Amino acid sequence: MKRPWARRTLGNGLQVVVVEAPGAPLAExxxxxxxxxxxxxxxxxxxxxxxxxxxxxxxxxxRAVADRTADLGAELSTVVTVEQLLLSVSVLSEGLxxxxxxxxxxxxxxxxxxxxxxxPPPARPAGPRTALRRAVLAHAFGPHPLARPPAxxxxxxxxxxxxxxxxxxxxxxxxxxxxxxxxxxxxARVLRLVAEHLGPWSGGPSGLTLPPFGRTTPAPGRLTLxxxxxxxxxxxxxxxxxxxxxxxxxxxxxxxxVLGGQASSRLTRRLxxxxxxxxxxxxxxxxxxxxxxxxxxxxGAPGTAGRLAAEAADVLRELAEDGPTxxxxxxxxxxxxxxxxFALATRAEEASALAGFAARGVDVDWLPAYAEAVGxxxxxxxxxxxxxxxxxxxxxxxxxxxxxAGAEExxxx
Length: 413
Hints:
The protein is of the alpha+beta class. The chain has helices at residues 43-52, 62-72, 96-108, 128-141, 161-171, 187-198, 249-261, 266-274, 305-322, 326-343, 347-359, 366-375, 379-389, and strands at 5-9, 15-20, 26-34, 74-80, 84-92, 178-183, 221-226, 233-238, 278-288, 291-300, 396-401, 410-412.
């Protein structure tokens, strides 16, 4: 569903998007703040701030914030991803102005009380899945914060309120952030209220944005790791892709679904049903501010990593050389159309999706337009996408297996 919307950038750099939802009993607010872990030594402060943001200000303690939230009929939560902090609020429509006042108080006058007295525990060694993902990103795209291991050296001391306040001033800033408001209220009035309550918020631009990968196309090859803690075989790949706003993305999306994005995919039929090699199989298009790539992820019994990689390469080769059948392409199209509708099933899900689009700088009605684009993709275009992007010689195939725990990490090209 395409909804009327308006966008405005405040003087402090905050981008505000108001989406009209006539008759909605609830207003949905989504604040998206750049929040990438660009410096490993800030990990403890980043984690603690995300947990405490929204729990107090210099004018309200935790109880006062909870009481005010309840009075407004609101629910507030925060979620952290590899690149963003998402603050979500669902509130009764008549509580919108009060919610914006509360949000401004928490952002402009933060207070971090009752912090743990003990230092954070030392970082645990990366598990096999995390170690494999970091190795794949480092090999495919070069050095990058997403591929960087935790900071070495002595454990940091306790995070103090001053530490958190300084980190807040650096990270939780309006310049570079996006606020989406989905409401039945008149957009001009909403924009005035946002400017009134969040206009005084200052700071930025944020230093916590993901830099782009050093390479736009992943370096192909074969990477083999041995990890003492691995109790299963894991396969992870990185192949070329098209950004979601780029030409040809819809055709690649359908090719990805044929490859491994649904229950009847080629990878599922080959690795699970025919050979019983893997109990978890998927293929997905990954995208963030750093770049985009096509990823296969599989998990199987110890000792099967090499076989998983060989079979996955064969599936890629078959699709690259012969393309999907018309029936496979049509099943993928129906799956993509259904998933698009599912993503917008509730207003809360719709608001979160639209906030993500706005944060990426695309129009909030991108998804309905994309659904139309998927419907227009031909079988020949899906076949061409398979030929261009699914070739195994363009793909990095990486495995980890704990069967030979004493072996050293190795790499073969």
